[in-house]
Design goal:
Blueprint: E1 5-8, E2 31-32, E3 39-42, H1 43-49, H2 63-74, E4 94-99, E5 103-108, E6 113-119, H3 123-129, H4 134-138, E7 141-147, H5 150-156, H6 160-181, E8 185-186, H7 194-201, E9 208-216
Antiparallel strand pairs: 1-3, 2-6, 4-5, 4-7, 5-6, 7-9, 8-9
Helix pairs in contact: 2-6, 3-7, 5-6
């Protein structure tokens, strides 16, 4: 079988003026994230090794690894604004949030940055929105993928929700494969209260929660 290479690269240059990256809610000034160090892992092995991991150790996930994961989900890979996941019409309706014990941040693909949405630990509120699932409760990092469907519906009308759901799947799979390549565990969750997630994130009805993804170093039992 032909071997392919799964590249983990640094973020691309600044977003072009035509790219869609409107901020849906009040956030702090975007600040740069650690630049992921370029690395390589065989894609076939990463695909083979991907599993849903629901048990995590107490070891925190460092900022460099978190930056890798954010970039994998929605990082820019082209000067004109192209990202790691395809988007219908290049409209980019997705938002990616990261909750740790320190803060809740929103990823800003423009120049690989993040904006603090709230200080303090929002993981408990997000876990509560999942019905108290153990993986969400115990993970050192929780990623949440939402979508502003109106960014896509202006062009695609009633097909927008389908395209947005497909796009979220692409982004989430990127995140899961990156986690595997980095030796981390992750599990995608779709069972949660939309309103509970919105409240935990501090966003309005314009954002549709699509995934909650707990991430951490695998614990005993996996």
């Amino acid at each position: 079988m032909e071997r392919r290479t799964f590249l983990v690269g640094a973020a691309a240059a600044a977003l072009s003026a035509c790219a869609k990256d409107a901020v849906p809610s009040a956030t702090g000034t975007p600040t740069p994230l650690p630049s992921p160090e370029p690395g390589a892992a065989d894609l076939d092995h990463v695909l083979e090794g991907r599993r849903s991991i629901r048990t995590f150790s107490a070891e925190p996930v460092d900022d460099v690894l978190l930056a890798h994961l954010l970039w994998a989900a929605q990082g820019q890979t082209a000067p004109w604004g192209g990202r790691t996941a395809p988007s219908a019409g290049g409209l980019y309706p997705l938002e990616v949030y990261l909750a740790t014990d320190r803060s809740l941040r929103r990823y800003v693909p423009d120049a690989h940055r993040a904006s603090e949405v709230a200080s303090g630990d929002r993981r408990g509120a997000i876990a509560d929105a999942t019905g108290g699932q153990e993986a969400a409760r115990d993970a050192p990092a929780l990623f949440v993928i939402t979508a502003v469907v109106e960014r896509t519906s202006g062009k695609y009308g009633d097909r927008a929700e389908r395209y947005v759901a497909l796009e979220a799947g692409h982004a989430c799979q990127n995140l899961l494969l990156e986690a595997t390549a980095l030796g981390l565990g992750a599990v995608p969750m779709g069972a949660f209260s939309d309103e509970g997630v919105r409240e935990a994130l501090g966003v309005g009805d314009e954002e549709l929660p699509l995934y909650v993804v707990p991430v951490g170093h695998p614990g005993e039992g996996g």
